[in-house]
Protein backbone atom coordinates (compact mmCIF):
# COMPACT_ATOMS: atom_id res chain seq x y z
CA UNK A 1 0.00 0.00 0.00
CA UNK A 2 1.51 3.35 -1.06
CA UNK A 3 1.12 5.92 1.73
CA UNK A 4 1.64 9.67 1.63
CA UNK A 5 2.52 11.47 4.89
CA UNK A 6 2.13 15.22 5.43
CA UNK A 7 3.41 17.41 8.28
CA UNK A 8 2.95 21.18 8.10
CA UNK A 9 2.81 22.42 11.70
CA UNK A 10 6.11 24.34 11.62
CA UNK A 11 8.05 26.50 9.13
CA UNK A 12 9.83 23.45 7.70
CA UNK A 13 7.23 21.21 6.05
CA UNK A 14 7.63 17.45 5.61
CA UNK A 15 6.28 14.92 3.11
CA UNK A 16 6.93 11.20 3.11
CA UNK A 17 6.20 8.30 0.82
CA UNK A 18 5.95 4.78 2.25
CA UNK A 19 5.27 1.32 0.90
CA UNK A 20 3.47 -0.08 3.94
CA UNK A 21 6.04 0.57 6.71
CA UNK A 22 9.07 1.01 4.42
CA UNK A 23 10.08 4.61 3.79
CA UNK A 24 10.67 5.22 0.08
CA UNK A 25 11.33 8.95 0.20
CA UNK A 26 11.10 11.88 2.60
CA UNK A 27 11.20 15.59 1.72
CA UNK A 28 11.60 18.58 3.99
CA UNK A 29 11.67 22.16 2.77
CA UNK A 30 11.44 25.64 4.32
CA UNK A 31 7.84 26.28 3.33
CA UNK A 32 7.00 28.88 6.00
CA UNK A 33 4.88 31.53 4.26
CA UNK A 34 4.87 29.73 0.90
CA UNK A 35 3.30 26.45 2.07
CA UNK A 36 0.04 26.88 0.14
CA UNK A 37 1.98 27.60 -3.06
CA UNK A 38 4.55 24.81 -2.66
CA UNK A 39 2.85 21.80 -1.07
CA UNK A 40 1.22 20.49 -4.26
CA UNK A 41 4.43 20.91 -6.27
CA UNK A 42 6.41 19.08 -3.58
CA UNK A 43 3.88 16.22 -3.50
CA UNK A 44 4.15 15.91 -7.29
CA UNK A 45 7.96 15.92 -7.11
CA UNK A 46 8.03 13.37 -4.26
CA UNK A 47 5.88 10.98 -6.29
CA UNK A 48 7.79 11.58 -9.54
CA UNK A 49 11.12 10.79 -7.83
CA UNK A 50 9.73 7.31 -7.10
CA UNK A 51 8.13 6.95 -10.57
CA UNK A 52 4.67 7.16 -8.97
CA UNK A 53 1.64 9.27 -9.73
CA UNK A 54 -1.07 10.71 -7.54
CA UNK A 55 -3.53 7.94 -8.39
CA UNK A 56 -1.02 5.38 -6.98
CA UNK A 57 -1.49 6.77 -3.44
CA UNK A 58 -3.65 4.34 -1.43
CA UNK A 59 -3.87 6.27 1.87
CA UNK A 60 -2.75 9.46 3.61
CA UNK A 61 -1.38 10.10 7.12
CA UNK A 62 -1.32 13.72 8.31
CA UNK A 63 0.14 15.33 11.42
CA UNK A 64 -2.78 16.55 13.53
CA UNK A 65 -1.01 18.96 15.83
CA UNK A 66 -0.50 20.80 17.99
CA UNK A 67 1.10 23.50 15.96
CA UNK A 68 0.71 26.54 13.78
CA UNK A 69 -2.91 27.35 12.95
CA UNK A 70 -2.23 28.23 9.33
CA UNK A 71 0.26 25.42 8.76
CA UNK A 72 -2.05 22.75 10.20
CA UNK A 73 -5.02 24.16 8.30
CA UNK A 74 -3.18 23.97 4.97
CA UNK A 75 -1.72 20.50 5.53
CA UNK A 76 -4.93 18.96 6.86
CA UNK A 77 -7.07 20.58 4.17
CA UNK A 78 -4.68 19.20 1.55
CA UNK A 79 -4.81 15.72 3.10
CA UNK A 80 -8.62 15.75 3.27
CA UNK A 81 -9.00 17.06 -0.29
CA UNK A 82 -6.58 14.48 -1.71
CA UNK A 83 -8.20 11.65 0.26
CA UNK A 84 -11.67 12.65 -0.92
CA UNK A 85 -10.59 13.19 -4.53
CA UNK A 86 -8.68 9.91 -4.71
CA UNK A 87 -11.26 7.97 -2.70
CA UNK A 88 -8.62 6.80 -0.20
CA UNK A 89 -8.59 6.73 3.62
CA UNK A 90 -7.01 9.48 5.71
CA UNK A 91 -5.66 9.25 9.26
CA UNK A 92 -4.69 12.16 11.52
CA UNK A 93 -2.19 11.48 14.31
CA UNK A 94 -0.19 13.47 16.83
CA UNK A 95 2.82 12.45 18.92
CA UNK A 96 6.48 11.89 18.24
CA UNK A 97 5.62 8.65 16.39
CA UNK A 98 2.74 10.08 14.35
CA UNK A 99 3.87 8.37 11.15
CA UNK A 100 4.21 4.93 12.75
CA UNK A 101 0.89 5.20 14.58
CA UNK A 102 -0.89 6.46 11.48
CA UNK A 103 0.50 3.72 9.25
CA UNK A 104 -0.35 1.13 11.91
CA UNK A 105 -3.96 2.32 12.02
CA UNK A 106 -4.25 2.20 8.23
CA UNK A 107 -2.74 -1.28 8.01
CA UNK A 108 -5.28 -2.39 10.66
CA UNK A 109 -8.11 -1.08 8.46
CA UNK A 110 -8.80 2.02 10.57
CA UNK A 111 -9.34 5.50 9.17
CA UNK A 112 -10.84 8.85 10.11
CA UNK A 113 -13.86 10.10 8.23
CA UNK A 114 -11.98 13.39 7.91
CA UNK A 115 -8.74 14.58 9.49
CA UNK A 116 -9.27 17.24 12.15
CA UNK A 117 -6.60 19.54 13.60
CA UNK A 118 -5.59 19.79 17.26
CA UNK A 119 -4.18 23.28 17.76
CA UNK A 120 -3.09 22.77 21.37
CA UNK A 121 -5.11 25.65 22.82
CA UNK A 122 -8.55 27.17 22.62
CA UNK A 123 -8.92 29.74 19.84
CA UNK A 124 -8.45 33.37 20.73
CA UNK A 125 -11.39 35.12 19.12
CA UNK A 126 -11.46 38.88 19.33
CA UNK A 127 -14.76 40.71 19.62
CA UNK A 128 -16.16 42.23 16.46
CA UNK A 129 -15.33 45.90 16.01
CA UNK A 130 -18.36 48.15 15.74
Note the quaternary state here: single chain
By CATH, the superfamily comes out as: ATPase, nucleotide binding domain
List how many beta strands DSSP finds: 5
Which segments are poorly predicted (pLDDT under 50) over 5 or more consecutive residues?
none
Strand order within the widest beta sheet: 3-2-1-4-5
CA-atom Rg in angstroms: 15 Å
Note the run of SSEs as H and E: EEEHEHEH
Measure the end-to-end span: 54 Å
CATH-level-2 architecture? 2-Layer Sandwich
Query: Percent helix among the residues?
Result: 25-40%
Q: What is the CATH topology?
A: Nucleotidyltransferase, domain 5
Strand content: 15-25%
How many domains comprise the coordinates?
1
Question: Could you describe the 3D structure shown?
Answer:
This protein is α/β, with parallel strands linked by helices and 130 residues long. The chain has a single domain (2-107), classed as Nucleotidyltransferase, domain 5 (2-Layer Sandwich). 33% of the residues lie in helices and 25% in strands. It contains three helices and five strands, in the order βββαβαβα. The chain has helices at 35-49, 69-86, 98-107, and strands at residues 2-7, 12-19, 22-30, 59-63, 90-93. It has a five-stranded mixed β-sheet, sandwiched between helices. Strand 2 (12-19) and strand 3 form a beta hairpin. The model has no long low-confidence stretch (mean pLDDT 94).
Amino acid sequence: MLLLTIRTDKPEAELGLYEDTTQLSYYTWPAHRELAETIHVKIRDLLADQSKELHDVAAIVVFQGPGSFTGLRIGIATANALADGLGVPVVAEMSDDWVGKGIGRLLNGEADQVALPEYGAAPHITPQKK
